[in-house]
# Entry
Amino acid sequence: MRAAWYEKFGPARDVLKIGEIDTPSASDGQVLVRVHASGINPLDVKGRDGGRWPMRDDRMIPHFDGAGVIEAVGAGVDPGRVGARVWLFEGNLGRAEGTAAEFLAVDSTRANPLPESQSFAEGACLGIPAMTAHAAVYRDGPVDGQTILVTGAAGAVGNYAVQMARNGGATVIGTVSSDEKAARAREDGAAHAINYKTEDVAERVLEITGGKGVDRVVEVELGGNMGITAKILKTGAVIAAYASMASPVVPFPFYPVLMKSPTLHIIGCFTMPEAFKQQSVADISRWMAEGRLTNRVAAEYSLDDIATAHETVEAGRQVGSVVVIID
# Structure
């Protein structure tokens, strides 16, 4: 099979190779998926650059997320799944094999129904962003009737969080960095979009909520935003943070936060309890089937152009997910 891999850490153009390697087979409890599209996340490029994990083998095939068709099943898996269209998550978790290859053998629970209404490229956008968003919105229970602030509402995780919170009956406020992104956030279900570059976020949130504040914050930059967050929380609110790249060491004003007595959850999609992961899978697949979840593809590249695809993700200017088309 054709695949992309790296044998050492480094810049994409220096270390990524493309060629023929052996095709895997499905072991007990696994399915063999012919991968049609492979999604790239920031975690994938940081891992390739040596910033997240050690080399797990002499050759590492990148990417956690993807979509394709089940070609074969291992012992203990329903043979009726052969031929099913699926989206994949955790393809590269804890091992050297990922979705940047024509075939991937993966635990059957990591291959989930992909409706005919969704292309393989759209299915490859899910995985890390959608699972993270679901956890950030729902880890603390239903959100019907709540007001939720989603920071970075036009980003990959933020985009899904807006849609999922809307699907759960919440009123969503999103922060964005441009008018284009504001329009995108509203299109996805945000009742309000605040341009944090031109508006005072705390002032606008309090104005929108009549001074009451928000029930939950889905947070992309915990350290950088904590000063604002402390001003706009309801008492007993939840902060669900999944990143803090600008300020990885998080300072916060203790006494203003103490007055609101919030719950802080650090969200890692890989470390969610298995039962919660399966609920996330069920909700995501159901919303797609109902036409209530949009997957945004920012750019598609061929496998031969995987280095350029990685560089696009590293630049961070796209709105939506970058996908490598395998076939």
Observations:
- Residues 202 and 229 are 8 Å apart (CA to CA).
- The longest helix spans residues 274-289.
